[in-house]
Amino acid sequence: MRLRFLRVLSVSSVASLIAGCGGGGTSATPVVAPLSIGGGRVAPLAVRHAPLGTTLPKYVVVMIQENRTVDNLFQTQPGVNTQSYGYDSQGNKVNLVETGLGVNFDCSHAHSAFDNDVLEGFDTEPCGAHAPANAAFTYVNPADITEYTTLASDYAFADHVLQGNEGPSFPAHLYLIAATTRLAPASDFNISENDSYSSGSGCEPQTDKTISTINMTKTWPEDDNKASAFPCITVPTIFNELDAAKIGWRYYTPNLKTIWNAPYAVKSLYENDRTHESVPQSNILKDIMNGELQQVSYVIPGAGETDHPGSVGNTGGPAWVGSVFNALTTSKKYQKDFALIVVWDDWGGFFDHVPDTHDTKLPIFPADHPKDPYEYGYRVPLIAIGPYARTHYVDHTQRNFTSVVHFIEEIYGLPSLHELDAETDDLFPLFDFTSAPNVHGPIPTGGVTIQSLLLQKQDPNFIVDSQ
């Protein structure tokens, strides 16, 4: 049986959370008018202001990796809340088993898997023909992710970041730029599954594309009616707000047609902002080296760098993230002036013990309304890195991963997009913006260099995600 939880967070508390003036002790704040999206005007919520006396970074880089939970990827990380066992559908205790980062199985992480299987036991989840028994009850050998463990140890790690949605990558990436997957401001329907991307991505005009949705006026299981829609939303995003405030941004992606290319699934961005897309994703390294980084960057990994399960060759993610960090921290222009947020987009079908059927104390309703059928997903890792990030720090605050959006709003004095990013925190507890910047040196990346990544041949057909 799927459990239901009481919602305890208050949207109306947002105004009391933030006071003071803009970053650096000044009162200058971008003027952001109500956004016109999809033909309708959307009045933004309260404008964010960082506390007086803080020195905020000028550059924010968000790297979005794939399909891992905290228990799976950081099981042995010191100070992190993990659990080395779970329970199957019969109530039997199952110990987690160590695997490599690259595995040849991929457990279902569809919204339907969360609804119908996982909350009754991770052992009921389909994981493919190559999967061992209890494949979801596994964790990654820390020797395979030394760049991640080094950054998590040297900087700040958030171990209670709930995925904004319950399902796979396409809606998850929309949450990370729009703080919702609602089709339109007045719509009752949210996107729940992956785009049928074989014939194009997002808003590209293809007549055969449909996507499953959730009816937000109903409760589970009545909401899960699989009503189909065209995978193109008309709500405002953080990029629309950056445009309105004349703040530069760039979205680095390996392929414009991947389901991870969230701007292509937003009508206003697809029609007006495609020049902000940069292919391939390694162009961020060039832009850092050439001093051409925009104020906000989103970075999608390439083939072999994603951490996505299902391929034994997909082990390059730690060195990829480490290399972007090394480029930033060795750049004289950026080394004292950046915040790097690394977050994983969804749970990937792996076990995580918070929340589960043995813990009914946690509120997991998003902010839309008290009976929102689109509950939060499981915990995903988040690392906050940079000269102002706290060092050797683990933060246990419960938040959802639209905190990434809230963080950008706070840094640049932008309004909240929706109730969800207004409700969650701003990641500021992971930073100390009142102290002098602390510049760390580069980290080892196992022989992978910035130059080798720039010379790496790109796969033009890289479109991947399974459920």
Describe what this molecule looks like in 3D:
This protein has 467 residues and is of the alpha/beta class. It has a single domain (11-36, 52-455), classed as Alkaline Phosphatase, subunit A (3-Layer(aba) Sandwich). Helix content is 19%, strand content 15%. The chain has twelve helices and 18 strands. The strands form five sheets. Strands 3, 8, 12, 13, 14, 15, 16, 17 and 18 form a nine-stranded mixed beta sheet that branches. The chain has a three-stranded antiparallel beta sheet with strand order 9-10-11, with no helix packed on it. The chain has a two-stranded antiparallel ribbon with strand order 1-2. Helix 3 (111-116) links the parallel strand 6 (97-99) and strand 7 (138-140). Helix 4 crosses helix 9 (317-329) and helix 8 runs parallel beside helix 9 (317-329). The chain is globular, with a radius of gyration of 20 Å.
Task: State the gist of this model.
This protein is an alpha/beta fold and 467 residues long.
Share of helix, binned? 10-25%
Mean pLDDT: 83
Tally of separate domains: 1
CATH topology: Alkaline Phosphatase, subunit A
Tell me the major beta sheet: 9 strands, mixed
Order of helices and strands: HEEEHEEEHEHEHEEEHEHEHEHEEEEHHH
Q: Whole-number radius of gyration? A: 20 Å
CATH class: Alpha Beta
Rough shape? globular
Beta strand count: 18
The total count of helices amounts to 12
Spans of at least 5 consecutive residues whose pLDDT stays below 50 are 1-43, 356-360
Proportion in β-strands:
15-25%
**Any idea what the CATH architecture is?**
3-Layer(aba) Sandwich
Give the full name of the CATH homologous superfamily. Answer: Alkaline Phosphatase, subunit A
The N- to C-terminal Cα distance equals: 22 Å
Task: Find the structural class using helix and strand composition.
Answer: alpha/beta
